[in-house]
Design goal:
Blueprint lengths: L1 H21 L1 E14 L15 H18 L3 E7 L2 H13 L6 E3 L11 E6 L11 E2 L12 E6 L5 E6 L4 E8 L2 E9 L7 H22 L5 E7 L20 H6 L10 E3 L13 E3 L12 E3 L2 E6 L6 E6 L13 E8 L8
Parallel strand pairs: 1-2, 9-10
Antiparallel strand pairs: 1-16, 2-4, 3-4, 5-8, 6-7, 8-9, 10-14, 11-14, 12-13, 15-16
């Protein structure tokens, strides 16, 4: 009888351990700027990186290897230039046996560069209002999705312009009952330029508006990520000479100024070594080599809601690619989400 009771106790313990393991869902998030990922045979961007299809195919193989190596559950793919580019990447992943991956593309409104923010995932996204992925944009003077900004031109004269949020994508997931709303961004480049900084500030204000009106009211926790093209003054990176000239990162983290404290946290603060905090490579002399005087800083970020931070197991930047693949490196964060109640919207 005692032996039977001991076996029952052991079985109960094993079931508890199994249930505890089952109750946690690993989730890997990756944001990666693939640098003008253009499908062979197409010209989706004026900023063509490779002229010949042979070089483009090699670029796709390298990007596919990044996905194969990191195995993201959700990948925010910046600078995919067309639906053909996304489809071609998925085709290569399927040839590798990674058949669970699906790609979703939405056309941006940056008519000059043609750069978009796409989604690659092996999870099933939520469908809201009949859409899996969409973009927020306004060509009119609708103040909802346009923002006026002011700057001084090269002659020092004050100027004003209006912008929308040109390169962005919005998509949603329910993971272990957690409703997560992702805003993928590619903000205006060049954090050393007055016009660019002013426009990026306006874009950040629009992004905050998107989160407040399109994500939070739907009951989703917002995640802002992508190539934000700015520095976080609260998280020093490897280059101490590059100070933030804007409040872009602070504004995005505090997307609702009526609430106490910031709502989002930059996962880069979990990367222990400051020397590891870099995601972009400015090839200063454009020789295609990694020279000692090139600039390496952190311009790509993943901003998580405070509610998710206790479940982060690790955050890092994967510095395993060279300039042939991209002038950016992927930002990676691993979470272990506990099971909680929740259903997918229909």
């Amino acid at each position: 009888m005692k032996r039977f009771a001991a076996r029952c106790l052991l079985l109960s313990c094993l079931l508890l351990v199994a249930n505890a393991c089952h109750a946690e869902k690993p989730l890997r998030l990756v944001s990666f700027n693939a640098e003008i990922l253009t499908a062979p045979g197409s010209r989706a961007s004026r900023l063509t990186r490779f002229r010949w299809d042979t070089a483009r195919e090699a670029h796709f193989e390298r990007v596919a290897s990044v996905v194969e190596s990191l195995e993201p559950d959700i990948l925010n793919l910046v600078e995919a230039t067309s639906v053909e580019a996304v489809d071609h990447l998925i085709e290569i992943l399927h040839e590798k046996g990674l058949n669970e991956y699906r790609g979703y593309h939405v056309e941006s409104n940056d008519n000059y560069t043609g750069m978009d923010v796409a989604l690659i995932t092996r999870l099933t996204p939520d469908t809201l209002d009949g859409q899996i992925i969409r973009t927020i944009y306004s060509e009119s003077d609708d103040p909802t999705w346009r923002e006026t900004f002011h700057y001084n031109d090269y002659d020092g004269k004050p100027r004003s312009r209006s912008t929308s949020l040109e390169r962005n994508s919005l998509y949603f997931f329910t993971v272990s009952g957690w409703k997560l709303g992702f805003l993928g961004l590619h903000l205006k480049s060049n954090p050393e330029d007055d016009y660019s900084n002013a426009k990026r500030m306006a874009e950040a204000n629009l992004a905050r508006r998107v989160v407040r009106s399109e994500v939070v009211p739907q009951g989703y926790l917002p995640i802002i990520w992508g190539d934000l093209n700015d520095y976080d003054p609260d998280v020093p990176d490897r280059d101490p000479t590059r100070d933030a000239a804007t409040t872009v990162l602070r504004d995005l983290k505090d997307f609702d100024s009526e609430r106490t404290g910031v709502e989002l946290v930059n996962v880069a603060q979990l990367i222990q070594r400051e020397s590891d905090r870099y995601t972009s490579h400015w090839d200063r002399n454009e020789n295609g080599a990694d020279d000692s005087d090139d600039v390496k800083t952190m311009l790509d970020h993943i901003l998580l809601p405070r509610e998710l931070m206790p479940f982060v197991r690790r955050a890092w930047i994967s510095h395993v690619t060279d300039l042939k693949t991209s002038d950016h490196w992927p930002v990676v964060v691993d979470l272990m989400l506990p099971e909680q109640g929740g259903t997918k919207p229909q």
